[in-house]
Amino acid sequence: MKITGIEIGEYRQFKNIKFDFTYPEGHPKEGQSLEKVCFIGQSGTGKTTLLNIIWDFFQVFIDGYQRVALENIPVNNEPYSTFEGIKVDAIYVEKKISLNYTTLKDYVESGYANLGYHWFKDLAIYEILKNQENTKKFCLYIKESIAHEADAFLFEQKNHPQTISDFVKTDTQIEKEKVLQNDRMNAVGSKKAISLGDMQSVSVWQYLLKDIDEYDEATVNQITNIIQNTAKSKVPEELQKWVESDPRIKLAEECLNPILHNFFLEVNDSEKGKVPITLRTRQGVKIDSSYLSTGTRQLLATVIPLYKFNTTDSVVLFDEPERSLFPDIQRKLVNYYTSLAPKAQFFFATHSPIIASAFEPCERFILYFNENGEVKCRNGVAPIGDDPNDILSEDFGLTELMLDEGLEAYQKYRQLGMQIRNETDEQKKNQLIAERLELGNRYNF
């Protein structure tokens, strides 16, 4: 699935605005869906609103898919109401899809009877979707508060009694809880759209790191079995094979360590047991998870889902990826995220000129208020990879980048230049030159 456009008649801060998410005429990929999109704009211009509109599109799409499959699902009218003044265009397996009030009005006007059923069935792609991989995701929404969810895999979640009744459990109760947990994880695996960052995702993290939990639970029995049933000379070799089969190693090498390297950290794959993921310094010193920075937690919580989920033809919505991250990390982020999900379409909302510089001008959508307070949009100007200061001036529209103190210093720098040109006394002239040179070196004028 790829989103190719959004038209908004009137919705919240938007009025009569259109977004074309295809590469423009003359581009090598002319007419194709944009591979990545960057929404830029001051607070209140609707960057997150646009992400939510796309998310609601997938809620309606998936609702229709489930209804055609005759699954018994609860009715939720809210996503449908979004499209009373909005049209979203998409493409899936070369078939164009449009969702707006016109396509839904019969169901809206009838009190949402058979919500989405006929619209989806008319798309004639149900059979294609039914036969696709069960774990394939249509949409992954990574919200700005996702760093808090890192607790789900950085700290021990099991065997912590919450109430008196939790202290003593029968074998039957334990087995029943395992069945319920497996049911929740299987539901996550088959879910078509996942939202992360709303603090309701414990089962998502259990699903994503299920292989690590299963490995840890099996380790004691496996080691015992190797020691008891393997020829003595072969024991070290078999134990080494088991150690090397730890799923943490692949996760570390292919996903986490390449970005953690910038923090001089790496996954502590020698630590087994109660906590799915622990970190250590590159010198081998274990790091207490409670001391990890918000930025580190943000990275861990965002890259794992992109790496673990099947995101082929998915749409990834990403709100403020730069949160709590130093500029040197921001420079790498977009390329790193897209490398983890190379067949997905990304939509980023950002305030960072460094993040924005990783996009082509046609991939940047700059939201701004006009003189009437209405939100308008234009594409970027600065080329991909340009100096973030150029992005700030040309795309973010900041005519002045310095604060008042810097502007005053620059004005004085210019005045000194005029005084030097007009000064006839060599001693005074040299003093002015020295003063101007000192000011220029301090501010890099």
Automatic annotation (TrEMBL):
InterPro entries: AAA+_ATPase, AAA_GajA/Old/RecF-like, P-loop_NTPase
Entries under SUPFAM superfamilies matching the protein: P-loop containing nucleoside triphosphate hydrolases
Listed GO biological process terms: DNA synthesis involved in DNA repair; double-strand break repair
Residue intervals of the AAA+ ATPase domain: 33-374
The name this protein goes by in its record: AAA+ ATPase domain-containing protein
Species in which this protein is naturally found: Fibrisoma montanum
